[in-house]
Amino acid sequence: xxxxxxxxxxxxxxxxxxxxxxxxxxxxxxxxxxxxxxxxxxxxxxxxxxxxxxxxxxxxxxxxxxxxxxxxxxxxxxxxxxxxxxxxxxxxxxxxxxxxxxxxxxxxxxxxxxxxxxxxxxxxxxxxxxxxxxxxxxxxxxxxxxxxxxxxxxxxxxxxxxxxxxxxxxxxxxxxxxxxxxxxxxxxxxxxxxxxxxxxxxxxxxxxxxxxxxxxxxxxxxxxxxxxxxxxxxxxxxxxxxxxxxxxxxxxxxxxxxxxxxxxxxxxxxxxxxxxxxxxxxxxxxxxxxxxxxxxxxxxxxxxxxxxxxxxxxxxxxxxxxxxxxxxxxxxxxxxxxxxxxxxxxxxx
Length: 349
What we know:
By secondary structure, this protein is an alpha/beta fold. It has three domains: 4-47, 434 Repressor (Amino-terminal Domain), CATH 1.10.260.40; 58-158 and 298-326, 3-Layer(aba) Sandwich (Rossmann fold); 160-297 and 330-343, 3-Layer(aba) Sandwich (Rossmann fold). Helix content is 43%, strand content 18%. The chain has twelve helices and twelve strands. It has helices at residues 4-11, 15-22, 30-43, 49-56, 72-87, 101-113, 128-136, 160-174, 196-212, 228-239, 253-265, 299-316; strands spanning 61-66, 91-96, 118-122, 141-144, 153-158, 178-185, 218-225, 247-250, 275-280, 293-296, 322-325, 328-330. A six-stranded parallel β-sheet has the order 2-1-3-4-5-11, sandwiched between helices. α5 (72-87) packs across α12 and α8 runs parallel beside α9.
């Protein structure tokens, strides 16, 4: 295999010049740059990134920690962050916690050990040890909702409250007065406060219901445990026959899939008998039948915000920032005005 000295000899330059071209560092005259690139191509030279990282003490890689790689929402976030990172000449190393705080701590330890330049924590769970480790190593980091802003830590707050309010208002304006909120709870062994986004979405629903309560709106909350679709089905088994509702808001799109399945199995048509709204607006929403109305979290914008915060801190030592990402309701076919009670298949669903 060709090494940097072989490239330098063929291009008639120093190894320092080859290194500058490879790492796009410094000012290299265009003719010299072309000779070096031509030599690299003809010799099929592959830079030793491991050695370069050791010399720099860090990599041109960003760590990304997600809660659930099975959830399309997190996969779409990962894709958006990777695209933005590569546009800035960074790679992305991925880890998943599967909603475990212990796995989150382990993932951060691994990222620090691999000398990533910075890390994005896009997870619903949090452990105080994570912030302690990141601050102790002065590792640039971006959190989704759960971070505390500092010199090296940024936090992006997703407007769950605004998104839930838009969903409730839309259903209210359609004429719905009995709304069921379906939650998932990934790990019943942990306290609910450990899952911040679940708490935030639930609180947003409760606040919206209070605002519309004077107009006659009634609400119920039901919780299922386990993966999203399973939790959605389990929650509906609890609700059907016990709670009267004409519309459902699911805490996330995978939970809405479980609701979809359960309603269909009981012969309850969407949206004829029950309207259904998801949250996150994953790509699956438009391929369901009927297509799913859902609250959208703009992935590309989130990816840009995450990478921009990290790169500013890594390259310019800019302090951490607090940013907010607005949500929007995407209306599709799964919502409609409620049928009169006498015309519904089951007045007490």
